[in-house]
Design brief:
Blueprint: E1 33-39, E2 42-47, E3 57-62, E4 66-70, H1 83-97, E5 107-111, H2 117-120, E6 132-134, H3 139-146, E7 156-159, E8 164-169, E9 178-182, E10 187-191, E11 198-201, H4 204-220, E12 225-228, H5 258-270, E13 277-279, E14 284-287
Parallel strand pairs: 4-5, 5-6, 10-12, 11-14
Antiparallel strand pairs: 1-2, 2-3, 3-4, 7-8, 8-9, 9-10, 13-14
């Protein structure tokens, strides 16, 4: 048994240069998926921008009984985006390092930060995978699977086998959005609710409540880093790359901090009652309502 509580939240390795596409996508020499071990039990993956301009980040968390794959990227075709093959290899490698003699088969749970197409496209690659559960992306499927009966007010938990993940309802960008907090690493995985890029607000009342919910959570739990699912900003404060960009040679790091959640709260207050697009240093607010 792995002790996921000892020393928690533990620090991981964020000393990584993410591949940000190529000037000529069809000639990109990099693999379709970049894999980075944040810790021994936590893997961050990024879809190559040359495969799909959204280049979402995915997260693979290992527990004693099963692993969690959070999001499945923007491309369905395994020939162009071999997500299952990559995840199977990572699971096999982890199990080789952490053998479980006599234990039941090791499971995989596939869930999502939210249901937009660039986060669920490769779900079908896992449809026939043994010992695998794919959580549907609708609000009804999400709340039923995780027992979130008083949505969006009450929080939930997910136990991967000694490794507990907090589930925080996060509607506003999309009605079934979830934010996850990994107690082992202290990572707050915010999906498209907060990341260095364009924050599309579908429902501003729900989004505002989500930000307040995150601030309350961060005041009560240790959060080491805030990791969203995209990078769309440049290193110039307030300037983003145009939508559809497939090469971002001047992008900032992925991690944000709790202070950025506070900055988002201030930005929402400053833009209350106004529509359109509003650029801030680390993100751009885009109201769609």
């Amino acid at each position: 048994m792995i002790d996921f509580l000892r020393g928690a939240p533990i620090e991981g390795d964020l000393d990584v240069v993410w591949h940000a596409g190529w000037p000529f996508p069809k000639r990109d020499p990099a693999p379709e998926i970049q894999v980075h071990a944040y810790t021994e039990h936590t893997v961050i993956l990024r879809q190559n921008k040359s495969v799909h301009y959204e280049a979402p980040f995915l997260f693979l968390l290992f527990g004693d009984e099963r692993a969690l794959l959070l999001d499945t990227g923007a491309s369905a075709d395994a020939a162009h985006f071999p997500l299952r093959e990559t995840v199977d290899r990572l699971v096999d490698d982890w199990l080789a390092r952490h053998p479980r003699p006599g234990a039941p088969g090791y499971g995989l749970l596939v869930a999502h930060t939210h249901g937009h197409g660039d986060h669920v496209a490769a779900d079908g690659q896992f449809a026939d995978r043994p010992l695998t559960t794919v959580v549907g992306a609708s609000l009804e499927e999400v709340t039923a699977h995780f027992g979130l009966t008083n949505w969006p007010h009450d929080l939930g938990t997910l136990d991967l086998g000694g490794r507990v993940v907090d589930l925080i309802p996060g509607p506003g960008h999309q009605r079934a959005a979830l934010v996850l907090h990994d107690r082992h690493t202290g990572l707050l995985l915010t999906g498209d609710s907060l990341y260095p890029g364009r924050l599309y607000v579908e429902d501003r009342a729900a989004y505002s409540a989500t930000v307040d919910r995150l601030l309350d959570f961060c005041a009560a739990r240790p959060v080491r880093h805030v990791l969203g699912c995209h990078i769309e900003m440049t290193t110039t404060p307030g300037r983003d790359y145009p939508r559809g960009t497939t090469h971002q040679p001047d992008e900032p790091p992925l991690p944000l901090a709790v202070e950025d959640v506070r900055a988002l709260r201030r930005a929402l207050d400053e833009t209350a009652g106004r529509g359109g697009t509003h650029a801030y240093d680390r993100f751009v607010l885009v109201y769609e309502d």
